[in-house]
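note to self — DONT lose this again. spent like an hour looking for the file last time. sequence + predicted structure for the chain T wanted, 233 res
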Amino acid sequence: MIDIEICADSFETAITASKFGAKRIELCANLNEGGTTPSFGIIQKCASLKTVEVHVMIRPRSGNFIYNNDELNIMARDIVAAAIAGAKGVVFGCLTNENKLDIPSTLFLVEAALKQKLKITFHRAIDFIQDYEKAIEDLIHIGVNRILTSGGKNSAFEGIEQLKKMVGLSNNRIEIMAGAGVNSSNASQLLKTGIHALHFTTRKKATSNSNLNMGSKFEVDEEKIQEILSAII
């Protein structure tokens, strides 16, 4: 069966991912901004489950994926912290001002991750890269294990033709994981591209009876998980 990775921002989500047999969670903070590095405490707590792999988003801020030396040093420290907390992998992406793969920055972070024996996912920063064929070859050469992508489009279903091409280019030398807009109506079609994994979020807004607004609270949408799993089994 294809690997399932659930995007998580809470311990509750990690428990649910384990319950439904997901292989991994991508653990993030600030999902509304595309995900940033979560706290040491939540990494450690989720890793304590031992029943689902924890792969940690390494992103020090929202916005673009162009990082200066200070930010890269912070990211390297966060990689070490993630390993100490019990993570199995890390997730990051580095681009140049021209939206090309930033090879020196990527190498710097890959080396930091490999020293900690962590698996490496290059995230949807690749969807900003026009020459994705070259980027895939470079990422294979650098030692990245997995690419999370929507096929260069806003959703994986819109990018389905590019996903097919990326799978062919990978030739099983690197995993291609489809993410963005994955649901029960398109999951089975995405599988037909030959992708190695599906990535999706599983949260819905929780109801609140408070008049004060300190940000939205979310809860796990178990029904969505069940519907996707039913569609691909």
